User: What shape does this take?
Amino acid sequence: MPADALRFISPGKPRLQTQGRPSAPLKENLHETELIREAQGGSRTAFDALVRQYDQAVLRLAMHLTGSEQDAQDIQQEAFLKAYRYLGNFRFECSFYTWVYRIVTNLCLDHLRRRKTRREDQAVMIDSSGEEIDLLTNVSDDRSGANPARELERKYLGQCIREALDELTPRERMVFELKHYQGLRLRTIGEMLNTTEETAKNTLFRATKKLRVKLAELR
Assistant: This one.
């Protein structure tokens, strides 16, 4: 499948649009395995259905891991382009969900490595209009509204956590966030990062230890 056979349209609401031979209307309630096989056979309708099933989950994951709406949309697009290009290599040895998330996490890892090299400020995210948004000040906390001291402590703790996360290697940060923010199992994380569950567990242990030391220093 050619990589340029896909493109996103409508920047506000990214969608994949395929170009090439038309496909027959998709059968209703088609099982995911059948969708994949039809997509592997060249059905763009089937691939579009797979994209619709996972596009928002992919965007949320990329958004959380990068902290940037624009970067997340770029990664979402690149992830599905890669999925389309290499769909013929999918051998059903893991779930399609894990396979797509593996593509996304690898793209996010590359992005984090580049960003770490450039030493960019990771305390803010950039929205679609180019405005900076502080990640924690936009998290609502009804309990803290009536308690300024608690609100101040929450913001300070959030800043400490951001600084501590910045001290981790991209892979350590990725494993920590996939585990604690995405709630994924270590075995799934290992599959996504093309490594073992034991390696993911050891990486999480190192990340947690570093965070504890860093937070103790900051507080």
